[in-house]
Amino acid sequence: MNVTTIDYFIIKGISDIPALQCLAFILVLLIYLITLTGNMTIILLVCLDHHLHIPMYFFLTNLSILDMCSSTITLNNILVNFISGDNTISVFACLTQMYMFASLTSNELFLLTVMSYDRYVAICNPLYYHVIMSHRNCTFLVIFCWLLGFIQVFPILMSFTFFNCYRTREINHFFCDPVLLENLLCNYSYFVWLSIHLGGVFDATFPPFFTFLPYIFIIVTILRMSSNTSRQKTFYTCSSHLTVVIFLYVTLICQYLRPTSVTNMETNKLFSLFNTAAVPMLNPLIYSLKNKDVKTALKRKINYLSGILVVHSFPTTRNEQS
Question: Which among 289, 278, 302, 306 has a CA at the least distance from the CA of 45?
């Protein structure tokens, strides 16, 4: 076995074929720009439109911030390496990227859990909604999600800082994945294994349980409604969040919980690319296409900007009318 103490890694990227590297760069750049545009649009709409100043969209703003950060951290290797031609990354930068990726993924799981609870309160306890989901409580929940994600993954980062001996410099991926780095260690480390798998078990049990549990009560409440119109309208308010949750968990399951017999790096890269690129891009599209409030707010702002452009385009006409 080759054993080496290293100070940098070589990121192999999505493919070794130059033509595919060029295609991957164009595709990832396009997806990344759409992701930034879509999520920034959601953030600006929520900030500028007072009709969206409610807990649901406060959480959605934080989800958009998470998606932008996650995409930037994981996709930058593909974009920067293709432009610069340098596919090396320092051990410190690699561990930082690994920590941020794992933390932001956990943050998103926790935030989606809180958003699920928000939908439960809105549907099952509507009279107490503004009391339970007050601005103070929502702010506390969001801060708690952010802190819990970063604190939970910190033991994984610390476990890797005690090792600088790896079997190879090459990382057959487009970012520093903690599970992949564990497999590159020279010797088996129980501390590294325990920190990664405890974090994985926690993320695979508690967030899914507390995310889908409220939907049991939501479904029961919907079924008790007398009219089909009320049922459809109520379920429609949850459909965007539920769609985002299902997308994320399906990709994470395909990425990390597949049987070893059907696991290979090329397939894993595709699932990772979908998780880190496609899901953050689809989230704002899902919320904008399936959400009447967001579409209405977007139309209001477009009409407002159009009115301003018209006024500034015809200043003389305006003065004559005055």
Answer: 302
Q: Name the residue among 238, 224, 102 with its Cα closest to residue 110.
A: 102
Return the DSSP state at 162.
Answer: T
Integer Cα distance of 118 and 125 in angstroms: 10
- From residue 313, give the alpha-carbon distance in Å to each of 102, 316, 322: 49, 9, 16
Cα 156–Cα 158–Cα 162 angle in degrees, nearest 5: 115
49's CB contacts (< 8 A; 6+ apart) are 297, 300, 301
The better pLDDT of the pair 317, 126 is held by 126
Q: What gap in Å lies between CA 31 and CA 34, rounded to an integer?
A: 5
Say whether pTM exceeds 0.85.
Answer: yes
Decide if 172 contacts 12 (C-beta within 8 A).
yes
Cα within 13 Å of Cα(169), Cβ side: 11
φ, ψ (nearest 5 deg) of residue 175 = -155, 170
> Is the confidence at residue 319, as pLDDT, over 80?
no
Q: CA 213 from chain center: how many Å?
A: 21
Q: How far apart are the first and last CA of the chain?
A: 85
Q: What's the 3-state SS for 216-244? A: HHHHHHHHCCCCHHHHHHHHHHHHHHHHH
For residue range 164-200, list pLDDT tens digits in order.
788 888 888 888 988 888 888 887 777 888 888 888 8
Over range 30-36, report the average pLDDT: 93
